[in-house]
């Protein structure tokens, strides 16, 4: 690339059409195919040129119809007064684009820098007309705020990271809906991260910290070890767990009351006259599944019913295994077969209902099926599924409120940066347990009654 220096090649009678300004090291558009350390470059007639705005000093592109070839002195440059200013950032080969700053937007808007800052932070103190004006100037000049720069300057941003196990998980959309409802009220946006089973939280945390974008993390926890998140929280980063699978982890958390939900499910089935109630489990290494199974056993024992090991089957949330284990239940002799099944998730309940149909059993006439979660499809299957509803939207809202409280937000500025908090006792950490609800539909009915060999009523199908 050639550097051009020399005299200003503007005719004396044309100089009144140009404004003298200070030079800046800048690249010219790629159409000139030359890069020089100044803000105006040699241009062809009718081509684009780069110049500094006479008011803001910002490097802009100007479309010219009859611009003469111009050589530029390294110490100064001339810009056309009556140019049609276009994009403040142009695609440049061999050099870097010029970018507007918040100071430039303030000058172009005719407002103070602090007012523009309030607009960028989505402050409710800004008049709506002023906000629209500033946003229009930003759009017209293709201005994109630098959130990373904000993070460096203030120690925080108007962004929170939301870590999910996968976008296909039924709970993710509902939790995100609740989170967004709260963050929008406070002028925060969400960055979505996925953490699948084959990637631990350590590598994801490295990405989050390197980008310097997130003021805090809201984590829908899954399989990964939580120690990296605990360490991150102890070092000062706000972290909140949602739907945690480990009740003893040293992090703020929001979860559903799995034990109480399962007790409600069992009470409903026993009120319908069921005694031989099977349980198809989820992943028993999860605390939520342990709580649901403990409630199942407690409900039977308190009703004077000895739990039958033959009626407990591992499902592990795997469809093929759920159907296979359910077939084993329905293959039992008629007087040993369950008349009701408590499934530890709605998806598990679907597998149970499929196996029942394969065995020639009707739901709910021959066997009742009750699920857990109340995912969207639960009301659409036939028969519609009776289930325990987890309040995923409300859990998302409470988790977002908890995280913003950890960040220390106010109306105008994000938090000033978190300080290391060290290890806190579990009792000192916010831990919200949300109530569940029984949603009664059509998959549960009265127990079919026959006479057992012991002469007392027994629930079974002949």
UniProtKB/TrEMBL annotation:
The keyword DNA-binding is assigned to this record: yes
PROSITE patterns recorded: HTH_LACI_2
Recorded superkingdom: Bacteria
This protein's record includes keyword DNA-binding: yes
Alphabetical UniProt keywords: DNA-binding, Transcription, Transcription regulation
Any one GO MF annotation of this record: transcription cis-regulatory region binding
Domain HTH lacI-type, first and last residues per copy: 100-154
Name of the protein this chain belongs to: LacI family transcriptional regulator
Species lineage: Bacteria, Bacillati, Actinomycetota, Actinomycetes, Propionibacteriales
């Amino acid at each position: 690339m050639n550097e051009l220096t020399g005299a200003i090649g503007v005719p004396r009678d044309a100089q009144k059409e140009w404004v003298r300004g200070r030079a800046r090291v800048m690249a010219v558009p790629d159409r000139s195919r030359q890069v020089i350390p100044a803000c105006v470059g040699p241009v062809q007639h009718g081509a684009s040129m780069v110049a500094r705005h006479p008011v803001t000093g910002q490097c802009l592109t100007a479309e010219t119809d009859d611009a003469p070839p111009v050589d530029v002195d390294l110490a100064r440059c001339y810009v056309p007064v009556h140019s049609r200013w276009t994009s403040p950032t142009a695609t440049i080969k061999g050099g870097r684009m010029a970018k507007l700053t918040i100071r430039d937007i303030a000058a172009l808007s005719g407002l103070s820098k602090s007012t523009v800052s309030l607009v960028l932070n989505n402050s409710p103190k800004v008049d709506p007309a002023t906000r629209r004006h500033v946003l229009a100037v930003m759009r017209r000049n293709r201005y994109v705020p630098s959130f990373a720069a904000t993070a460096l300057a203030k120690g925080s941003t108007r962004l929170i990271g939301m870590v999910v196990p996968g976008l296909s998980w039924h709970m993710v959309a509902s939790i995100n809906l609740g989170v967004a409802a709260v963050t929008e009220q406070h002028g925060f946006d969400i960055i979505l991260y996925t953490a699948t089973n084959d990637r631990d939280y350590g590598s994801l945390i490295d990405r989050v910290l390197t980008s310097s974008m997130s003021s805090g993390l809201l984590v829908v926890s899954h399989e990964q070890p939580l120690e990296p998140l605990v360490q991150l929280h102890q070092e000062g980063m706000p972290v909140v767990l949602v739907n945690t699978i480990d009740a003893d982890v040293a992090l703020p958390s929001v979860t559903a009351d799995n034990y109480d939900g399962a007790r409600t499910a069992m009470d409903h089935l026993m009120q319908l006259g069921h005694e031989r109630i099977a349980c198809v489990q989820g992943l028993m290494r999860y605390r939520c599944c342990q709580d649901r199974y403990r409630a199942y056993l407690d409900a039977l024992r308190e009703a004077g019913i000895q739990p039958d090991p033959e009626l407990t089957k591992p499902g592990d949330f795997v469809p093929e295994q759920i159907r296979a284990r359910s077939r084993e239940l329905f293959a039992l002799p008629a007087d040993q077969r369950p008349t009701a099944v408590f499934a530890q998730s709605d998806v598990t309940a679907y597998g149970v209902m499929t196996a029942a149909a394969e065995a020639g059993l009707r739901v709910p006439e021959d066997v009742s099926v009750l699920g857990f979660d109340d995912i969207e499809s639960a009301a659409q299957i036939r028969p519609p599924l009776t289930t325990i509803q987890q309040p995923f939207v409300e859990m998302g809202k409470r988790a977002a409120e908890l995280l913003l409280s950890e960040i220390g937000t106010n109306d105008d500025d994000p938090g000033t940066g978190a300080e290391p908090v060290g290890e806190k006792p579990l009792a000192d950490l916010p831990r919200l347990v949300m109530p569940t609800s029984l949603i009664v539909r059509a998959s549960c009915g009265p127990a079919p009654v026959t006479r057992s060999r012991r002469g007392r009523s027994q629930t079974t199908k002949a």
